[in-house]
Amino acid sequence: MSWTIGNVTTSDFSENIEQPAVSQESEPLPTRGDEQTVQPHERQPKKGELPAGRPEKTQFDDGLDYPRIGNLSFRRGTLTPNQEKIWEDNWDTYGKVLSDEVIDVEEWFGRKGPTIVEIGCGTGTSTVAMAPQEPDHNIIAVELYRPGLAKLLSATVRNEVSNIRMVRGDGVEVLQRMIEPESLAGVRLFFPDPWPKARHHKRRIVQSGTLRLISSRLKPGGIFHAATDHADYAEWIEELREVEPTLEPIAWPWPESPLLLDRPTTKFEARGLNLDHDIHEFIWRKKEA
Ligand SMILES: C[S@@+](CC[C@H](N)C(=O)[O-])C[C@H]1O[C@@H](n2cnc3c(N)ncnc32)[C@H](O)[C@@H]1O
């Protein structure tokens, strides 16, 4: 396994399923969302900031498909002064930026406990609503977009939710580089960017390689729960339903689930429901060895 400086793109945080912002893969330098474009050598990253330059990308050599995305590019997003203060005061306690450090969950949460990773938590509406309902679980919310994490951080601090932590970075890289194999009770992926255009389908996060990676991070019996309101993405996921031999598809609904499956309706999801989109839920369980 090796790291390369690769072509990585993701949509910015838009809560907009129609047109996630796409950066130009040919751009020589990325524009970082909440900051202006800078040369990588100009300064050190600030607290909770992704490093400048093209993000490192794991070179997987297993013949499977992984999201192929270009430069990281974000819309400008500003924090309110209050969010800035909360960020400044609390990010070091609750947050980490993508790195090669394998997370010591016990140390970070101050306890052992089943751990769940939520990829692409957005503003954390689901995260902060679900975490108090599963107080014995440790929740690691992963998101690229700082204003989204700032909202989640503010809500976490304000509501004194003790079982949420956050990582800023690409969820695939976070799983690969920061999460110990066979350590998770669950992985959540709620309303991933659908990349509706055919030429962008390779950017969709659900791919055969991602499913293999998720499975490798789950304990036997661990659950992967994904939801989308995008019909074409749902078909795409359906086609990949059985591609990963270590994951067993489970029919929805699943009242006996060991993992909390009920989500609150997020602003994003409500928008889809207003457009009469059906919500498609997918569950897999990691098979026992
Ligand atoms: C459509 S929004 C859904 C947000 C939230 N899950 C919800 O249900 O409201 C998709 C989110 O995934 C984030 N995202 C996209 N690609 C990602 C990646 N590779 N790693 C982490 N987050 C990602 C985006 O920034 C965005 O916040």
Provide the low-confidence segments as ranges.
1-38
SS-based structural class? alpha/beta
- How widely separated are the two ends? 23 Å
Number of helical segments with 4 or more residues: 8
> What can be said about the biggest beta sheet?
8 strands, mixed
Oligomer: single chain
Describe this structure in words.
- This protein has 289 residues and is α/β, with parallel strands linked by helices.
- The chain is 25% helix and 19% strand.
- It contains 8 helices and 10 strands.
- The protein has helices at residues 81-94, 105-109, 125-130, 146-158, 171-178, 208-217, 231-239, 267-274; strands spanning 2-5, 56-59, 95-97, 115-119, 138-143, 164-168, 184-190, 218-228, 247-250, 280-286.
- The protein has an 8-stranded mixed sheet, with helices on both faces. The protein has a two-stranded antiparallel ribbon with strand order 1-2.
- Strand 4, helix 3 and strand 5 form a beta-alpha-beta unit.
- Helix 1 (81-94) crosses helix 4 (146-158).
- The longest helix has 14 residues, at 81-94.
- The protein starts with a strand and ends with a strand.
- It binds S-adenosylmethionine.
- Residues 10-11, 13, 15, 119-122, 125-126, 142-145, 148, 170-172, 190-193, 205, 266, 268-269 line the site of S-adenosylmethionine (SAM).
